[in-house]
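Sequence in, structure out. Go.
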Amino acid sequence: MSTVLPLLEPQPRAQRRAHENNKLAKRLRHQVGRAIADFGMIEDGDKVMVCLSGGKDSYTMLDILLQLQQKAPVKFELVAVNLDQKQPDFPGHVLPQYLESIGVAYHVIEQDTYSVVTRVVPEGKTMCSLCSRLRRGALYTYAEENGFTKIALGHHRDDLVATFFLNLFFHAKLSGMPPKLLSDDGKHVVIRPLAYVREDDISAYAEAKGFPIIPCNLCGSQENLQRKQVSRMMDAWERETPGRIETIARALGDIRPSQLSDPKLFDFLALGRHGDAPMPDAHAWLAGDTREPAMENGES
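Output:
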């Protein structure tokens, strides 16, 4: 006589999924909280402008900041701000409906940067540089006019590493995307609370939360971007050697100026000097041997 076992109920699988999602949320809260503490991103009384694009990164940033706000050791205000760039077929109702459903204060800036970018940039050329400048200008202006003390952007750990390699490969400089930045005019403090968070974790979290993602059909559709080249390289590295990107990200926080080659960051001239005589300047060295030739026939 054979025994027929009952089919397993789907509930255990759902419970495991819920458990994993809770672990992921806890990890993200920890990483965002640590970044805020490490870099002093948010302090008591701050009015934070959370820049919301409709992508997975900014949704996750807002969601985690809202969770931390409930138990944070300081009081701060969060306002979600979206820049409607007037891209064709942009679903302008999605973000307001979502933000109203969760009870978050928000504002939508309307500025037709799309027409400017598509008119000025030749077809097939990268639009990111001009688009980001126009977008940044609009956000900075709104922040100044409305008393925001911090501007939060949704760049994550992988963005920081990719920017480092972009500057290294294409601009011949060692610089990146800092977790906290003072704008060039000194008026705005930009923070990146997701600086320690992996993009894969953000993707998983956004899927679990069911955020209403709005795809970008302006710069996001350009397959020849240098950033996409770097991202493909990083993806290949991570497949071949898991953990490599995390190692590089940690290295960005452990800079040794004496082990590099920038005389503006380390005083190589003073290193190992004998005496106090002034060093010859670069022109003397570049000119070659400037010593007077010896006189012939014993002349003096």
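Check: The chain has a mean pLDDT of 86. The two ends are 123 Å apart (CA to CA).
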